[in-house]
């Protein structure tokens, strides 16, 4: 199977979002993204006392995306939060069905103590997700509250 190595692997963070995050951290004139997806920053090069352009990361690389998420300019976007909230609702619904199934198994097979443990674990996970899916305390709201407390609004 052949692979085109000239194209960067597509990640979850767009090129324009990367540019905005890095420009906020290093200044817009100090950020360069090549057509092959390499991200270069101008500044003090690592392990030296010289200034210049150095390779900061690669678009689509999981390590690069993890570094981007640690920068102060990073915050959860509303669309990302909506997607995560939707996933939480889906998982909570599935756990609700699992609670009913486990409850039925415990009542049908009362002599099996492991089923009670499973039921307790499933109920605990379900309760935690029910708190997380509160429409008033959605992920985007929590992200904005955190940004306000850090003075990043």
N-to-C order of helices and strands:
HEEEHHHH
Overall pLDDT score: 78
Query: What is the overall number of helices?
Result: 5
The fraction of residues assigned to DSSP E strands is 5-15%
Distance between the termini: 47 Å
Derived from helix and strand composition plus strand pairing, the structural class reads: mainly alpha
Overall radius of gyration: 23 Å
Strand order of the biggest β-sheet: 1-2-3
Give the domain tally.
Answer: 2
For the secondary structure, the number of strands is: 3
Q: How helical, in percent, are the residues?
A: 40-55%
Approximate shape: elongated
Low-confidence stretches: 1-10
Largest sheet: 3 strands, antiparallel
Describe the fold and architecture.
The structure is a single chain. The protein folds into 2 domains: 56 residues, no CATH class; 73 residues. It has a 3-stranded antiparallel beta sheet, with helices on one face. Helix 3 packs antiparallel against helix 4. It contains 5 helices and 3 strands; from the N terminus they run αβββαααα. The longest helix is centred in the middle third of the chain and has 31 residues. The protein has 153 residues and is mainly alpha-helical. The radius of gyration is 23 Å and the shape is elongated.
Summarize this entry quickly:
The protein has 153 residues and is mainly alpha-helical.
Topology:
Elements: H1 15-26, E1 31-33, E2 38-44, E3 51-58, H2 62-70, H3 78-108, H4 113-132, H5 139-150
Antiparallel strand pairs: 1-2, 2-3
Helix pairs in contact: 3-4
């Amino acid at each position: 199977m052949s692979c085109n190595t000239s194209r960067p692997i597509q990640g979850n963070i767009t090129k324009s979002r990367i540019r905005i995050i890095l420009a906020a951290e290093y200044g817009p004139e100090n950020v360069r993204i090549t057509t092959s997806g390499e991200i270069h920053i101008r500044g003090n090069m690592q392990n030296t006392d010289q200034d210049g352009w150095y390779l900061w990361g690669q678009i689509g690389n999981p390590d690069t995306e993890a570094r981007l998420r640690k920068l102060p300019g990073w915050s959860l976007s509303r669309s990302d939060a909506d997607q995560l909230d939707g996933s939480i609702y889906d998982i909570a619904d599935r756990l609700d069905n699992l609670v009913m199934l486990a409850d039925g198994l415990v009542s049908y097979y009362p002599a099996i103590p492991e089923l009670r443990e499973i039921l307790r674990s499933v109920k605990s996970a379900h309760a935690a997700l029910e708190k997380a899916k509160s429409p008033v305390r959605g992920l985007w709201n929590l992200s904005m509250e955190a940004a306000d407390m850090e003075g990043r609004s």
